[in-house]
Recover the amino acids of this structure.
């Protein structure tokens, strides 16, 4: 009977083997995913801020393409659309960004798209995050305030 009791104890103790390690693996993966969200989320937010900055600066560069003959003759600020778009795209090229430029009336709108590679989320299959930045500008007269 003692031999059967010893065998029964061994069988019961073997039935629990591996449960703690599965729990540890699951918790470790969950902690890595949370750390990945924190780290890669912060990197994505920084990339979005950078994309917004590039878009706004490119729009300002495009808004400087004024029709000087029109301005000198009438005092009216008017953009040269093709030149505005070219200057905004040239700025984006100089800073290593890519995007689209739209010139509508006296407004230059720029949309920048960038891809931020992930650090930890790559472990769960997310290799990069797409971010977008937008900016617009229009020509203004005056130094401290906009004049009509």
């Amino acid at each position: 009977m003692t031999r059967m009791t010893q065998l029964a104890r061994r069988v019961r103790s073997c039935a629990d083997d591996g449960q703690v390690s599965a729990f540890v693996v699951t918790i470790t993966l969950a902690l890595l995913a949370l750390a990945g969200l924190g780290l890669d989320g912060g990197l994505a937010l920084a990339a979005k801020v950078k994309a917004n900055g590039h878009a706004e600066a490119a729009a300002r560069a495009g808004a400087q393409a004024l029709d000087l003959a029109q301005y000198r003759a009438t005092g009216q600020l008017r953009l040269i659309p093709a030149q505005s778009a070219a200057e905004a795209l040239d700025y984006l090229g100089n800073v290593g960004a890519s995007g689209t430029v739209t010139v509508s009336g006296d407004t230059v709108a720029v949309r920048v798209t960038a891809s931020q590679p992930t650090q930890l989320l790559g472990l769960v299959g997310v290799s990069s995050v797409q971010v977008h930045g937008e900016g617009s500008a229009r020509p203004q007269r005056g130094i401290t305030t906009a004049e009509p």
The two ends are 103 Å apart (CA to CA).
